TrEMBL record:
Hydrolase recorded as keyword: yes
Record-given protein name: Acyl-CoA thioesterase
EC numbers for this chain: 3.1.2.20
Keyword entries, A-Z: Hydrolase
Recorded GO MF terms: fatty acyl-CoA hydrolase activity
PANTHER family assigned: ACYL COENZYME A THIOESTER HYDROLASE, CYTOSOLIC ACYL COENZYME A THIOESTER HYDROLASE
Protein's organism: Terrimonas rubra
Length: 170
């Protein structure tokens, strides 16, 4: 399988916050935003591997600023690294008040997807080529983030997380 560039997976989603998307404070509900983020990041993963994917995990998300009713939501998703059958996707999310010409950051997050065969078995995905400085940085950190989520998910022993342990030993 030919490795693919990170940029080839770039997915941009734009949504408008409507009344049905908001909580009692008139802000976008966190669950609705996470749903849109799930779709944007799944599309980025599918662009990378050209196969159906499932969400394997969602890392912690901190909502820095509420997004108001009538504002626009921008989600940018890109694959940071591909492992065997799994891919980590990084997302940046902004809100925008078009009337005030004001764009503000909402959050950043990492979702992990696994490519599956028609029989629902994990299947290998192409490797990823990071190009820009930011892509290189995200690529390097992905190994440690993967180890954290596999430890938390009970799928890896802390002793086997070599790169993560090295952070604390040096
Ligand atoms: C994700 C899933 C396919 C993993 O299947 P599995 O039988 O545990 O497969 P494996 O242990 O062989 O792992 C397959 C890959 O998943 C990754 N993975 C498994 N659990 C993970 C987790 N909690 N976080 C991140 N990656 C995970 C493994 O690291 C592995 O990646 P790799 O091939 O790149 O090394 C399976 O647990 C599943 O189908 N979960 C439900 C997915 C779903 O329905 N999502 C929507 C939410 S309702």
């Amino acid at each position: 399988m030919e490795p693919r560039k990170a940029m080839d997976s770039l997915t941009i989603m734009t949504e408008l916050v409507l009344p049905n998307d908001t909580n009692v404070f008139g802000n976008l509900m966190g669950g609705r935003l996470m749903y849109w983020m799930d779709i944007a990041s799944a599309l980025a993963a599918q662009k990378h591997c050209n196969a159906p994917v499932v969400t394997a995990s969602v890392d912690n998300i901190s909502f820095e600023n509420p997004i108001k009713l009538g504002n626009v939501v921008h989600i940018e998703a890109k694959v940071t690294r591909a492992f065997t059958s799994s891919m980590e996707v990084h997302m940046k999310v902004w809100g925008e008040d078009l009337k005030k010409k004001h764009k503000y950051k909402s959050n950043e997050a990492y979702y992990t997807f696994v490519a599956l065969t028609d029989e629902n078995k994990p299947t290998p995905v192409p490797g990823l080529i990071p190009e820009s400085e930011e892509e290189q940085r995200l690529f390097e950190g992905a190994l440690r983030r993967r180890q954290i989520r596999l430890i938390l998910g009970g799928k890896m022993k802390p002793d086997d997380a070599k790169e993560l342990k090295a952070l604390f030993e040096n």
